[in-house]
Design brief:
The structure is a single chain. The protein has ten helices and 15 strands. The protein has about 350 residues and is α/β, with parallel strands linked by helices. It folds into two domains: about 130 residues, NAD(P)-binding Rossmann-like Domain (Rossmann fold, 3-Layer(aba) Sandwich); about 200 residues, Dihydrodipicolinate Reductase, domain 2, CATH 3.30.360.10.
Length: about 350
């Protein structure tokens, strides 16, 4: 039985981490910590376990084997490193951290502690993405030449546990990065996953186009990010992350290969649609992509517990997530300097 502590009891913890842990037969929810102690106490009463006044107290509990870090972006590294040093396995929400140095320190701490560090890049767990990767590896659409991947919705104002224009996502001190970190990390990681290649070059522009805080001023972080990526295998494509898609969400990826085109979550009926060079179509009805309004089981929690139980390094490890974060920070540099940035993937 893996005993779990949850640090940060906001929306993502309440709709994903805690209920999915509660549904896993190998888990005992043991501890909760939040800046709002009442919130943590209510969850302890509902799911069992104890509320702690600080994450330090939670990490000092020797019974807790692993933790979920579900706090605001700027505290991910501090809490994750402390947890690893305390001998806990860590599942951290994205983005990994708010500086490349902190991301690297997290990976180092996991290595030194001999504990697992996993990131919540749940798009890898979508059945359609797993099937798409299998089809790409089989050569169905040939060599991928170019691509476009998009994640856009109306913003995090209604997603937060404390909804409205005062959400921490809009606060530069707590978030540091906006849509690029919130949504762009998912699609950047997805491209690495689907194509078995790494992004080695980025040209990017980050904008704050529409989102305003409670005072009516434009928020201090980006609400749109537009990136042009070049991959290690030669493919070139775009990644768009946006908080200003006020109609339907767009969580699609399109891959253009030498033998055909693959569209993923780009059709309301078919999650994967392949069209070859002669116009023949192969349609796959596999699953539906999650949206803010339609949360389904992510698979992330079960995978994390499975890897801990079987003492197996997570596929979505800190080392793997570091590849994505190098791209994110290189994209910020590109936007700030107006230049193409070559990424050293180590």
């Amino acid at each position: 039985m893996i005993k779990i502590g949850v640090i940060g009891c906001g929306k993502i913890a309440q709709v994903r981490h805690i209920p999915e842990y509660a549904d896993n037969k190998n888990v005992q929810l043991t501890g909760y910590c939040d800046l709002n102690f009442t919130r943590a106490s209510e969850l302890a009463d509902k799911f069992g376990g104890k509320a702690f006044a600080s994450y330090h107290e939670l990490l000092a509990d020797s019974e807790i084997d692993a933790v979920s870090v579900c706090t605001a972006n700027q505290s991910h590294a501090e809490i994750s490193i402390a947890a690893l040093k305390a001998g806990k396995h860590v599942l951290c929400e994205k983005p990994m951290a708010t500086s490349l140095e902190d991301c690297e320190a997290m990976v180092k701490a996991a290595h030194e502690a001999n504990k697992f560090l996993m990131l919540g890049h749940n798009q890898r767990m979508a059945k359609a993405h797993i099937k798409a990767r299998e089809l790409i590896r089989s050569g169905l659409i040939g060599e991928v030449i170019s691509f476009r991947t998009t994640f856009g919705h109306g913003g995090p104002e209604t997603w937060s546990i404390d909804p409205g224009k005062g959400v921490w996502f809009f606060d530069k001190n707590r978030a540091t990065i906006g849509a690029l970190a919130d949504l762009g990390t998912h699609k950047t990681d997805l491209i690495h996953f689907l194509l078995d290649q790494t992004i080695v070059e980025t040209t990017a522009r980050l904008f704050t186009l529409d989102k305003r805080d409670a005072s009516g001023s434009l928020i201090g972080v980006d609400d749109n990010a537009f990136c042009l990526y070049r991959l290690s295998g030669g493919a070139v494509g775009t990644m768009t992350a946006s908080w200003t898609y006020y109609g339907d969400e767009d969580n699609s990826t399109v891959l253009y290969g030498t033998k055909g085109t693959m569209r993923i979550f780009d059709d309301p009926d078919y999650s994967v649609k392949v069209t070859n060079r002669t116009g023949d179509r192969i349609l796959y009805e596999i699953d539906k992509i999650q949206t803010n309004d339609n949360q389904t089981k992510s698979g992330i929690i079960d995978a994390f517990i499975d890897w801990v139980v079987n003492n197996k390094e997570p596929e979505i490890s800190g080392v793997e997530a570091l590849k994505t974060m190098r791209v994110i920070f290189a994209s910020i540099e590109s936007s700030q300097t107006g230049r193409i940035v070559i990424i050293n993937q180590g």
